[in-house]
Structures are given as C-alpha cells and as structure tokens.
Write the structure tokens for this entry.
Amino acid sequence: MRVSKLFTRTSKTAPADEVAKNAQLLIRAGYVYKVMAGVYAYTPLGLRVLEKIKQIVREEMNAVSGQELIMTNLQRKDTWEVTDRWSEDKVDVWFKTKLQDDTELGLAWSHEEAIMEMMQQYVKSYKDLPQVVYQFQTKLRNELRSKSGIMRGREFVMKDMYSLHASEADCDQYYDTVIEAYKRCYERFGIGDSTFVTFASGGSFTKFSHEFQTLCDAGEDVLYVNEDHSVAVNEEVLDEAANELGVDKASLKPVTSAEVGNIFKFGTEKSEKMKIFYTDNDGKQQPIYLASYGIGITRVMGVIVEKFADESGIVWPEAVAPYQVYLATIGDVAEQADVLYDELTSKGIEVLYDDRDARPGEKFADADLLGIPHRIVLSPKLVEQGSFEYKKRTESESNSLTKDELFATLSAAE
C-alpha cells in the first residue's frame, strides 16, 4: 500500500475531549475516527490490525473445535425474560429499541440465551453433544463510564464463544482446554508474559468467572498477585477468592491491569430456565451444561497500544501490525524503491510504502507514530552503495544492510 493512496493523514493532535492514550495515538495515526465517547470507526489501517487479532483468535478457536457463525444483533424481549436478564435491575447495559408496531427489542450485549434458543433446534440427543460455536460481532453496551478509549467502548468488536455439554465433567474439561487456547492467543498477540488468568466476579453473567487480565498502567482493574505470579485475584472478590483458593491475602500485592477476556460457567441454569433439554442414553430428558468465552478484539488492540507505545508513537508487535515494513524514500529513487516494493510484496511481506514528496523528518516521524515494526529507507547515496538503511521500531539506531542481509533480517522476524 502506498501512503499517497491512503485517505487518512497523521496528525500532531487528538480531539481535546479524548483523555485515553490509546485513542489519542490511534486517532493521530489514522487508525480510528472518534464518533463520540466510547464509539469509534476503524479506518483501513485500523481494520488491518483488528483482522490480524481476529485471525489469531479464529485459528485458536478452530483448533479447539469451535465452529464460526454470526448471530443477530436484534434480540427478542421474551428470549431474555425467561432467564430474568431483560430487566435493567439485572443487566444495566442494555440498549433497547422498538419496531414500528411498538414491539420492544434489545440490541445484543451478549448471546447466551440466543445461542441456546437456536441450538435447541439442532441438539436433541446426547449424540449431538458437545457443540461449540463462536462469532465475531459488534456488541452494544450502555456503559456508564467510557473514558478509556477503545479499551472500554459502548460499541466494540467481540469474539464470543459458547459450548454446550451433556455433563458437568465434559464442560469442565473443555473449559480448561479453552483457558489454554486463550493463553496461546495472548502469547501470539505479544502480551502473553503479562496476562494472567484471574478469579473474578461474574457480574451480570454468573457469581464467579475467570478473567484474563493484562498488566497495564491505564487499566481500570486492580489485581492481587503473589510473588511468582501463579495466583491472581481481582480486587472485587479478594476476600472470598482468597478463602476459596486457600491463599494468605498478605502474600498478594496489588497491580493495575486491564481485562482482555472473560469466561463463565453457567452450568444447567440457562437450560433449566429455558426448558431446553437433550435425551440421554437411557431416553431421559436432561439439562444442557453451558459455558461462554469472550475476548474483546478492539479492547485487545487498545491494551497493546497502551502497553508498548513510547514517546514517538505506537509500537505494534509483529503478529498484529497492519504492515511489517515501512518503506520510505529520500530524494529521486522512486524507480529503485518501486522495484524493492514489488520484490518485498512478492515474498509475502506486507509493506506500507511512503512514496510522498515530503521531508525525511516527516516520513520518519510518521513511521514511528504508525508503529510499523521495520523501517527501510532508500536514498541516492544508499543506492550508489548498493545498501539499504534498516531500523527496527523498538531500536534507536539504524544499520546499513545489503539486500541479502535485509531479507535475512526480515525473514528472521516473521
């Protein structure tokens, strides 16, 4: 992609009412456009990052037998009344609307009930279980607070997965399998070494849940962790969780973190309330065990920005960067740069090619702000020498490399 073809432009300033660092940088770099508090549009650059994150999640969910689908955003009132989650007393984040005939509808904030209602058409017997389905969907939640940029949105992209089981033992076993799959996701995102599985309140979902929390100064949560980080407990359930886990509270120290995932076991509660059953091996009707598993795709993007950004801008980990290489020209070397661009892209290397007639300092500042992992510069002098200037985004010094050395370096980074 040529920078001259992008409709977005970098900026030295962000909206005055934007206080979150992640949103300030993403807006300035042209990844997102702020519509209102907690509501952001994603440009082609931003979408590339989201799609990289989604693809990692998709691969890991497929690897644990997940089947991708997409559910509706419009939800019937009676679907949720059965489980008492239509009322604002139970769920206070509903956005609701009406049809022209005054039929009340909800705009989906989650899909447990809707999934169960659909799956009852397909799950009749123990032979039909287990089943695992997931989706990537824009969720709408009427959040009271929305000052953390894309880390807490009123409209956001989420991966939500649901597993249905014939027994508690099978549900528990699969639940543990998903925990490991989630760990692989965060490792691949580049935040695995600072992300923990924590014991937390289930909020509107269940009494307790497991959260995936990433250490982050801009986070809204407080974790209590032990010295070797093998135990992590959310502050809101500290006393109860410490008792259940048999942990001495004095051994736990507080750290600031941001939630990047949440998983729940519902047991047979939904099945029993909704009267959705399966026929077991003896011909008897039995309730279905349900668990759900969420990853905030846009939230992960925001956390990554918060964690790794420096004074010059965003720093994307290799696996989620919109492009691997930022190719910039200085002087009249367009012909040679075009050849290199074609050669890089032919090898499957994603390149953002700054072909603008702009000052070198402007190009280098934009490269840093955008956070592309590798920068390559071509100039008449470098062309004459048969070399290329190369710099990693995370390093301050550049190096002069031959073409073979350059391609070897890029290949090693993949």
User: Anything to note?
Assistant: The chain has two domains: 3-308, 323-413. The radius of gyration is 24 Å. Residues 3-308 form a domain with the BirA Bifunctional Protein; domain 2 fold (CATH 3.30.930.10).
